[in-house]
Amino acid sequence: MAPKLAPAEPSSTSRKGKRTAVSMMRRTKGKTSDQQQPSDSNQNTSNGAQRTNNKGKRLAVEASLEVHKKATFDRFTFTTPELAQRFHIHFANRTVILGRNIDLVKLNYFHFDVFFARMGWLPIVSMKEFVYPRVVKCFYCNMKFEDEGPITTSINGVSINFDVAELCKILDIPNEGVCLYEGKKWPRVEGFKAAKAMQRLCGYPQSGILTSHSLTVLSRILQHMISNIFIPKGGHRDDVSFLEAFLVDNIFIERKVNMGYIFFQHMKASSLSEDSVLPYGMFITKIVKYFNVNLWNETDGKKLKSFYTYNAASLRRMHFVRKKYGSWARKLVVPPSEVDVSSDNGSSEDDENENQAVEARTSENANVTPILSKEGVGATTDAYHPSHKGWNEAEASNNLITQISSLSTRLEEMTLANDRRLTSLETRIDGFQEEFKAGMQVIRGQHDEMMAFLRGHFPLHGRDHI
């Protein structure tokens, strides 16, 4: 029987081989994990690089578009690409105020021709020019000026440069009078007192807030003309600025005001603004014509329509009615029996122009940022309107309002009549003075002839003389 052999003990060499194999496996696993981590980081890096490349492409596209835009801007209209960009951002969509004029014949009751002739503003209120909106927008976009320097701009490659004196020459108005442009408070002018001015505008002492509803009929119409022709602004015309009230009062008392200076400053303010209306459409047409700018290629020319002319229809749209014997009053306080029906024949014209009125109000309300501040000015609401009361109280209130309105109208008529009489009296007094001076010259001549005759026939002897 073969002897059993004892189990052989593992040698140190075999144990060492096992440890080596285990360590090799561990190192292999570590290498595998190490190789996996760089692959993930490489994937993240590739995604970031792709995003960077996409962003770079977008920037490159935007830059190329900007370069293309700068390279393709209208060099004939704008001197630099920045001006072209400014035009498209701040001026292309702004509303242009065409301007208005006055039918002095149809409104002869108010003697507007006398008022504006005394101030030297007849060429302004009777102007009729085509308006080119693109030219107006380019005029304000290209405008450059300093605080007290002239205005410089360019239209269709033609340079335009003018100051206040030349602007007055272009518009054919006098370059004289008070120079001011202040809307936040009453102007400080020698001899001007706000309390007396408000009394002239309202017909009675007024110490509160000045609104269009507190003005007399004549003052309200003049204020409306000032806010449309002389200092155009967006939105409604119910607010009364201090400058507007000051100008209306100056028209009444014939104090000279340099309107060329006001136009000049209002143009500057409109150019600096980014969303206000662009005023003086007809004035700018007259200016560019003065500098021989070619307008033959302009295709957006607009002719002033009858809606923009102050006449009887305009007054009716302002809620005034003509009473018998020719006077005008607010429609709310005039009984139907006192309305002059024979003269109220403009309803068809009003209906025809109603769409124009709505369109004009809509376009102006889109850009209502005012140039001048209107501090201290506001509109009042009638919280106690007669319709909120009982029938008897409303009727009594209407009767009282009618009587007050009738009295106010009579006072206005008396004021106008007295003004005309005083003007006629001043003219007659001036004529009497001239006749008196001529008579005195005749008497002096006759006296000299008589004295010469007496001296010739009766020589002087010592103290005995005539």
From TrEMBL:
Residues 33-47 have a biased composition (Low complexity). InterPro entries: Transposase_32_dom. Residues 1-60, 338-385 are annotated as: Disordered. Residues 118-293 form the Putative plant transposon protein domain. Pfam families: Transposase_32. This is Putative plant transposon protein domain-containing protein. It comes from Vitis vinifera. The lineage of its organism: Eukaryota, Viridiplantae, Streptophyta, Embryophyta, Tracheophyta.
